[in-house]
Specification:
By secondary structure, the chain is an alpha/beta fold. The chain has six helices and ten strands.
């Protein structure tokens, strides 16, 4: 009887695992934010930026040897290619950019992925981790547990899943805001998780998904955008480069 119960239990575990896998596959396909035509066009190499697209999206300046690298964790259900218009300009400014694909497009399944990047690029002297949305939350967890591997943290419209209040890393938070400059309430509520000297950069009238260039996705915005995606991209690019320059 006991063996029969064990056998039934084993079958149930397998069935549940298969169901969970199927749900993840379905959810990923249903809610995926795919790259726009603008983003796809930004994936072409030219005389400014060299682009490599494999398991990682890698961009580097065509006529410079960068010493600072930026690792990027994407938001939930976000195809990394959707960030190409923003990442391209950051690379053109003289930085190596490595955007990492995540299992099922969820950084929560691979928060330690950033450790894989530096060994592949020994010429890079300093590393900054950047994360959008869920990617930002997981970037915060990585930074809290692996501060010795980083020289800075940039969060795009997110807050850390692990408290960084005692971290000595320079932290910049670039976030959507009302026209008056106020962040969403959940950001304000979670500000104590950030270091006291973290730098918050509001994007007045910006929205969550304008940190990239996406079609579709299941995210529901808090408000209608008051600026264009192109205008928001310029702000994100400038603020991110400023944070990288501060590390440099």
């Amino acid at each position: 009887m006991f063996k029969k119960i064990l056998k039934i239990s084993g079958v149930l575990v397998i069935v549940l695992a298969v169901m969970a896998f199927a749900w993840l596959e379905y959810s990923t396909e249903k809610n995926r934010a795919t790259p726009t035509d603008l983003a796809i066009a930004a994936l072409a190499s030219d005389d400014r930026v060299i682009v490599e697209l494999g398991d990682w999206l890698v961009m580097r300046p065509a006529n410079a040897s960068p010493k600072i690298g930026m690792i990027v964790y994407p938001g939930a259900n976000c195809d990394i290619r959707g960030y190409a218009p923003v990442l391209r300009e950051i690379a053109a400014a003289g930085y190596l950019v490595v955007a990492m694909s995540m299992p099922y497009d969820f950084a929560i399944f691979a928060p330690g992925s950033a450790s894989e990047v530096p060994p592949q690029y020994p010429e890079i002297e300093k590393w900054v981790l950047t994360g959008h949305s869920m990617g930002g939350a997981m970037a915060g967890t990585f930074a809290a547990n692996n501060a010795d591997q980083l020289d800075g943290l940039i969060m795009w419209d997110s807050y850390p899943a692990t408290a960084l209040v005692e971290s000595t890393l320079p932290v910049t938070h670039i976030h959507r805001a009302t026209l008056g400059g106020e962040p969403p309430e959940n950001f304000t509520a979670n500000r104590p998780l950030f270091p006291a000297d973290s730098n918050w950069v509001p994007i007045r009238g910006g929205i969550h998904m304008y940190f990239g260039s996406f079609d579709g996705g299941g995210y529901t915005e808090l408000w209608e955008p008051k600026i264009t995606a192109a205008e928001q991209h310029k702000i994100v690019i400038a603020a991110t480069i400023a944070a990288l320059q501060a590390v440099e």
